[in-house]
């Protein structure tokens, strides 16, 4: 079982059901760059329903003749959702098929087709736009509105969602077992396990900041991440300008996605001797010795264009945008106690 990560804004004002049907969880990737119009990679903007992203990759491979490794995507999206997502297919030396044949088996709609010089890579899109419908909403309207305003203005801790760790943490359990066994696994599983281990370390560090009420505050020695970008800088001293930029949401405290680089375990975690820290120390040493380069992720997310609408039948619609790699469920976890209306959902509810 995964730990219950500490929350930033106190007791939740209500409860709700999410994903009672795929249409209740809509996600649209915003690419953030223009296609070149030429090149050997065909870019497809596809809408899928009740399919996970790898199901679509298999269809693209079968239709185009391209190997799965030559098919790019920005991230994995939920099965129990309606999502619009970009894929690229390397078509060097092959004629493009009629892409609308993807629609024959149902669940996929071709929205847009273009061409580009480079393969699509994980996490290169700018943001994900969400439209969520929450059902069977309970709680006082005034308290719910106040919490929504707090989330809109101040944001939430940027935890990795439970999807990153597998159902009931199963992927993380497998990753730990693989880490300690030294056994070889497929490239896809290796990537999945590394992602789960790095996400776990990140969440543990963020949980400490939340407990200390420092998740949204820049402190001396922090790495600061510029909002909406991958740019960052080290902040050895916190002055009025840094405090103002942090308060405005222009910069966020950054925490590491662990790997090789100038980062100290004892500085970030402390030197206490606990089972949890021993586990984290073992994982961090493994990641640093696995040729993974240190990266930085913001500790806070502030939703863009956040708005909501209460309906008469105890439903609530939320519309907002989050930067690539942030999870809608991290926002929901600070709003209401939510449960899945439909149990089955795929990996990657992020949305990476």
Report on the structure:
With 352 residues, the chain is α+β, with helices and mostly antiparallel strands. The protein has two domains: 16-130 and 305-340, TruD, catalytic domain (Pseudouridine synthase, 2-Layer Sandwich), CATH 3.30.2350.20; 159-298, TruD, insertion domain (Pseudouridine synthase), CATH 3.30.2340.10. It is built from eight helices and 16 strands. It has helices at residues 53-64, 141-154, 170-181, 187-211, 240-247, 265-269, 275-288, 328-332; strands at residues 15-18, 25-30, 41-49, 71-73, 82-90, 108-116, 127-138, 156-157, 222-226, 232-235, 251-257, 295-298, 300-301, 304-310, 316-323, 337-340. Strands 1, 2, 3, 4, 5, 6, 7, 14, 15 and 16 form a ten-stranded mixed sheet that branches. The chain has a four-stranded antiparallel sheet with strand order 10-9-11-12. A two-stranded antiparallel ribbon has the order 8-13. β9 (222-226) and β10 form a beta hairpin. Mean pLDDT is 92; it is low at 345-351.
What's the helix and strand layout?
Blueprint: E1 15-18, E2 25-30, E3 41-49, H1 53-64, E4 71-73, E5 82-90, E6 108-116, E7 127-138, H2 141-154, E8 156-157, H3 170-181, H4 187-211, E9 222-226, E10 232-235, H5 240-247, E11 251-257, H6 265-269, H7 275-288, E12 295-298, E13 300-301, E14 304-310, E15 316-323, H8 328-332, E16 337-340
Give a brief description.
This protein has 8 helices and 16 strands.
Keywords:
27% strand; globular; 8 helices; four-stranded antiparallel β-sheet; alpha+beta; ten-stranded mixed β-sheet; disordered C terminus; 352 residues; Pseudouridine synthase
